[in-house]
Amino acid sequence: MNLTLKIWRQKDANDKGKIVDYQISNVSPDMSFLEMLDVLNSEIITKGEEPVAFDHDCREGICGACSLYINGEAHGPDRLVTTCQLHMRKFKDGDTIFIEPFRAKAFPVIKDLVVDRGAFDRIQHAGGFVSVNTSGNTQDANAIPIEKVNADKAFDAATCIGCGACVASCKNSSAMLFVSAKVSQFALLPQGQVEATDRVLNMVNQMDEEGFGNCTNTGACEVECPKGISLENIARMNREFLTASLKG
Ligand code: SF4
Ligand code: FES
């Protein structure tokens, strides 16, 4: 396939940035989207120019680093995949592809297609954990019975990889789907109950401090989420938040 790529180039956080056109030929439909960018970068480097900076790590849908906005969709046109799992067979010979960073006030661009998603880390630090007594008296987790339906829902919530596609897809740049997944994975388990009140209050407070917008129930986040995180988690987080606020 021969393609025209229109890629966001931005030297650093202070640069205004602009779309730059690139032509790429002989792209195999079996390449992943990131492999296609690797080929483009080796051609750019051969010409002595600065390669396109983009984020990636695992390249198998686990780490959540490969956050690209492709033709106006987070992680591109496929469903339930990350950018590293997107294949070039989803495009046609002669296509023009727009490639931009995830855009949100709370995700400032560092360079080209790389954004700073440290806001998610700070939300996690605010409460996305359980404290475990490691003094030698730790209870075996398998000794605590958990209803199968709750165990499954907690596992589903825990599959959130923190990619930020929910934020990038939302017209309000809301992080509710991400935060609700992180709250839910513990709210559904007995191990999460001890710190439940502080967890939801602190995580929601940090989310607001980071400058994410509010949820207005448009559901774009659920559609674009590569892990199929359900809006049901947002409803659960709202219930947890209300209960915690009444206690507090
Ligand atoms: S909820 Fe989905 S889209 Fe949002 S960070 Fe988690 S995996 Fe990514
Ligand atoms: S590089 Fe890790 S999810 Fe894509």
Keywords:
binds FE2/S2 (inorganic) cluster; Ubiquitin-like (UB roll); binds iron/sulfur cluster; 248 residues; single chain; alpha+beta; 8 helices; 7 strands
Structure description:
The protein is α+β, with helices and mostly antiparallel strands. The protein has two domains: 3-111, Beta-grasp domain (Ubiquitin-like (UB roll)), CATH 3.10.20.30; 117-247, Alpha-helical ferredoxin (Fumarate Reductase Iron-sulfur Protein, Chain B, domain 2). Helix content is 35%, strand content 12%. The chain is built from eight helices and seven strands. It has helices spanning 33-46, 118-127, 148-158, 165-169, 176-187, 196-209, 220-224, 232-247; strands spanning 3-9, 18-24, 68-70, 73-74, 96-101, 109-111, 114-115. The chain has a five-stranded mixed beta sheet. The chain has a two-stranded antiparallel sheet with strand order 6-7. A hairpin with a 2-residue loop joins strand 6 and strand 7 (114-115). Helix 3 packs antiparallel against helix 5 (176-187), helix 5 (176-187) packs antiparallel against helix 6 (196-209) and helix 6 (196-209) crosses helix 8. The longest helix has 16 residues, at 232-247. It is elongated, with a radius of gyration of 20 Å. The model has no long low-confidence stretch (mean pLDDT 96). Bound molecules: iron/sulfur cluster (SF4) and FE2/S2 (inorganic) cluster (FES).
Provide a brief overview of the structure.
Helices cover 35% and strands 12% of the residues.
**Could you list the spans in which at least 5 consecutive residues all have pLDDT below 50?**
none
| Main sheet summary | 5 strands, mixed
CATH architecture group name of the largest domain: Orthogonal Bundle
The helicity comes to: 25-40%
Strand order of the largest sheet: 2-1-5-3-4
Number of helical regions: 8
| Class per helix and strand makeup | alpha+beta
Within the CATH hierarchy, at the fold level, what is the topology of the largest domain? Fumarate Reductase Iron-sulfur Protein, Chain B, domain 2
Name of the CATH class of the largest domain: Mainly Alpha
